Amino acid sequence: xxxxxxxxxxxxxxxxxxxxxxxxxxxxxxxxxxxxxxxxxxxxxxxxxxxxxxxxxxxxxxxxxxxxxxxxxxxxxxxxxxxxxxxxxxxxxxxxxxxxxxxxxxxxxxxxxxxxxxxxxxxxxxxxxxxxxxxxxxxxxxxxxxxxxxxxxxxxxxxxxxxxxxxxxxxxxxxxxxxxxxxxxxxxxxxxxxxxxxxxxxxxxxxxxxxxxxxxxxxxxxxxxxxxxxxxxxxxxxxxxxxxxxxxxxxxxxxxxxxxxxxxxxxxxxxxxxxxxxxxxxxxxxxxxxxxxxxxxxxxxxxxxxxxxxxxxxxxxxxxxxxxxxxxxxxxxxxxxxxxxxxxxxxxxxxxxxxxxxxxxxxxxxxxxxxxxxxxxxxxxxxxxxxxxxxxxxxxxxxxxxxxxxxxxxxxxxxxxxxxxxxxxxxxxxxxxxxxxxxxxxxxxxxxxxxxxxxxxxxxxxxxxxxxxxxxxxxxxxxxxxxxxxxxxxxxxxxxxxxxxxxxxxxxxxxxxxxxxxxxxxxxxxxxxxxxxxxxxxxxxxxxxxxxxxxxxxxxxxxxxxxxxxxxxxxxxxxxxxxxxxxxxxxxxxxxxxxxxxxxxxxxxxxxxxxxxxxxxxxxxxxxxxxxxxxxxxxxxxxx
Length: 640
Hints:
The chain is of the alpha+beta class. The chain contains 20 helices and 24 strands. The strands form five sheets. Strands 1, 2, 3, 4, 5, 6, 7, 8 and 9 form a nine-stranded mixed beta sheet that branches.
């Protein structure tokens, strides 16, 4: 029964209406502007500044962006664009720099001619970063002069000052996030690196340098892709066997928009499509993805019939022609309209036709000029259709036997008692029978269910659906979740509001989590898209002193708490969940009041998919390179 909300005896009158001035709304409700105040929101600050520099590149004025985590943990983003305007603003009676940094919805992206195409749509990016920073310094090189200004929590410390002469041009923003706002101010270099590499792929010829100067964490990378999204597709396919060697590139530009598509087919069984609008990852797709899919199916079917490779009655479906495709769809337009749950679904109706037309012309021409590749593709699509039919029959057979019916729950599942409020319930997918047993004892059985896994689940990338359905661990998950999968997926039948992966804090645990995410990403993607999937965060260390225990979740936390001198402390490094008793597991990892859950997003699934391809693929040199590059990350966590 829901708790009653007690009423206050306070009058609600005009005095209760607050007017937040300047940047106060951002500090009052930061989640409205950056999504959250966790690690994701923290890193979004950098994205906001980089997007402004990329807009300068799109306008043709910038070719290099430098992003650095400095020794003190602050971040600087520098470009060689035109620089934020430094003159006095006519109506605000202050420098344009100060207006941009202190006024929401102030910028050059509202039709004034500053930018034709931009990723920052609302003019809030830089001012939001300023509001949520403990301090921020801006340095601009413009008209042969240097200009500087400093801010503390969004408040200017002095007017914009003109400094030394220079031949440089551009803008440099340096800031330190406010610890009063964010759960942590520790930036993750890998998160930054991944986003910057993606931006470089999407902007042909743009050089992006990133580095980390923090002691003991020094790193440097530089990204520049002359081939743009063609190289992006080749990167994603680097561990795949291709059906035909070349990546197909489609490009069409007119006065108001630009369409870029790159795609190739591999011998895998899943599609891997990523779409963007003005460099924004449209995770929920949109009209440009619909146009691509429509054109792809039409061109393949038309060619197959014309070449007498398929009959009129044997029309291939979209699932048949998508199997094994890797594609990047990137559109740029002057006035993008976004919709959907996370505002990352493109809604400009004209882009569907633009993409469809460009794709139909270019891909149709390619197949006509490459008959061998065309025949190989049609044969692959026909095989996909036949396999899909076999998988459907296998699924129907399994369902008739009751193995996937929600009334027949797996024997290993310790279900929760609440059957009336599935949105309030959660299921832990636990690594190993031992940890599963501990979790069953330690849980709150009213709303928490436990499903232990035996070892590593099937690699769904390398088998077709009928083989997947033969795997007992996967069948157990499908049955427990109750919502079906792929074309039978029905979110309304989902039995738990949260699906939580709980694995050991080691390499094997990460591997199992990646396998699980890959399965969910391929078979039940809406669970990730709609925020149902989480990863638990078990502690790495237990520190005991004077009969009291404390838990720490990273090496950095441990060092901050007790430093190098561990005299008088007993430090236990947890090698697995099974080393904790039921009470400890509840207190640290399962109690909603204390635990830390990481919500898995489509970005996380994309990263997991990429790592999975590297570690589980058939090219050992990629595996060696990955291990060599990340060796320090893993050896730091080994119990030596």
